[in-house]
Structure formats: structure tokens, C-alpha cells
Amino acid sequence: MGLARGADVGVVQGVGDRVWKFIWGLNVPPKLIHFIWRACSGVLAVKSNLFRRHCCPDDICPSCGVDSETVLHALYLCPSIRQYWEASGFEELLSNTATTSVSSWVIEAIELLHGDEKGRFLAMLWAMWAIRNDKIFEEEQRCPDVTILGLVRMVAEYQGYKNACVGGGGRVLAADVGSGAWSVPNVGETKINCDAAMFDGGEVGLGAVGRNALGEIVFVASRRCRAGWSVDVAEAKALEFGLEIAKRLEMEVVVLESDALNVVKAVSKRAFSRNSLGMCVSDICRYFSLLAVKNICHVKRGGNTVAHLTARICHIAGEERIYVTDFPTPVTSLAELDLI
User: Fold this and answer.
1) What is the pLDDT of residues 97-115, one digit of tens each?
2) Which pLDDT tens digit goes with each residue over 44-53?
3) Distance CA 159, CA 238 (A)
4) Is the pLDDT of residue 135 over 90?
5) b/e map 65-86, b = 16+ CB within 10 Å
6) What domains sit in the chain, N to C, each tagged with a CATH number?
7) CB within 10 Å: which end of the chain, N or C, has fewer?
8) Angle at Cα 46 formed by Cα 42 and Cα 47, nearest 5°?
9) Which contiguous run of DSSP H or E holds residue 217?
């Protein structure tokens, strides 16, 4: 079962206290809490609410021009934003979530998610509202991918800062988990951020972005493959792809960075084996003798958004794109955010 298309009740009867305690207890920025509270209350300025208050002549969604624009429609059901949910990793969970109100939908989805996924889901909701408003009110629209990844990163950084200040629920070793923010490499080094994106049909996107000590982009590389790889193997292939491009461009001193902690550990420990990941580790380490690879580091997802976006540039299996000038605008916009 999916969402009821007419559902737009703020708080269903008998759930009110639970909803408010739940919302105000979320570990996300106060602005996001306030947005979620307004969404769950059903008071966002969507067309159905404005029409009910005689502020506009109809309640038709300004984005799709077909359905009544309720809060649920604006944040999830509208065809104009479904593509972003489908690429988010949450689509399967949300499509099986049966609700009759925004509040119970949000709570049910959050309760099915774990750890950092909760913050990413709420950041996605916030981004959907920002994208909707950009389309309607802004002459020059921001790239939706930049909006999404920027808000996801902001929420992740807030959570990391708050956990560092008040203490988290478990012991985290500094050597195991990297920073939540991207940082520039040393002078003379090129830092290469790598990531993989999993698509339907066994297709995988690989992304690698090299930047210098000023934070300037040196190259952007994306490749799409048809392969039945596991997530860890795909992440390892992304690292290998980044090194392949560095070798092609004759780079000297290289620092690798990935948000795949298991893969970073495996490469750091030279964990060679006969399984798929072990063979990938072996292939990666071969490049260490061909390039001056100074280090391989882990960075949290919020610090790897540029590579994450780059992994989605190619749309056809077998396609490869390499930029050394005239970099894609969404990538440069995200790279600029890393320097703030």
C-alpha cells in the first residue's frame, strides 16, 4: 500500500502528544525541526491551504499542473520531485508506508530508518520544499542536486557537532571514522574524492574528483558500468577509477578519500584475499607503486558530496566523462560549499 493521495491532515486524533514529543526530540537543526513541525501540522503554504483560505483561484499544483497540491503532494507525491526520491535510496521504504496524515507518515518512516538515515530523510523533505519554492518563485533556479546534497551535508555536520559537544551513544575511535567535512590537501598534493552510486538493473556509477591545496578542481571523472557488484566492491572500484585517472593525468602526490569505511580499512591494511573485495584491494595497491599515494582517508558522507554527485553524471552503461576544464556547474557549486 502507498500514500493516500488526499491525505493532508496535520495530526491525526489520538497521536498529537506523541507527534510533538517526537518532533522536538529530533537531533537535527532547529530550523529543520520547525519545518517538520509546520509540515506535520499541515500549515505549509501549499495551494490547497491557500485555496481554502481564498488566497488563490484553485488548488492545482503549480509544478505538475494536474493534482491538488497538498503537503504530501508537495513533499513526495508530485511527479516533478519523485525522481529525487527514487535516487535517494528511500523510495522502496516510502512506497510501502501506508498513512493517512503527514505526521504519521513522517513518524512511521523515521521509525523504520536507522542512524544517519533519519537525518538524511528529514533533510530530503526540507530539500523537496526548497526545490518546489525555487521552481515557483525564483527566476534563476539552483541545481536541485546541489540543494539536496547541501542540506543533507548541513544536517550531518550539525549532528556530528552536537554529538561531539554532548556525547554520542557509543564509543567512536578517532582512527576509525574520519571528519564530517572536506578539507584541502597539503601544498603539492591532489586530494581525490571517490564514490559509487548504485542504480537499478545492476548498473553502477563511479565518480572521482581531484582538488588541489586551494580547493580548486583539477579534474572531474564519471563512469557508468553494468556490473553486479556489492556496495563495498563498487566503492573500491571508485577508488581504483580515481587512481586510474590520476595515472592518466600524470599526477605526482595523491591523497585518496572515500566515505566507505570498510573499504578504506581494507586498503589501509592491505587486506588481500581471493574474494571480490580482496582482489579490488590488490588492484588499488598496484597503483601505489605507480603513483605517490601519500594516504587513504575516510571522510563522512557529508564531506564526500562532490564525488557522490559526480558518480551520477553518466546515464548510460559504458559511458565515461572526464573534465579537466569547463567542469559541470553542479559539481563546482558543491565544491564551493566545501570551502565555506
Assistant:
1) 766 678 888 888 888 888 7
2) 999 999 999 9
3) 27
4) no
5) eebbbbbbbbbbbbebbeebbe
6) 16-166 (no CATH), 189-338 (3.30.420.10)
7) C
8) 125
9) strand 217-226
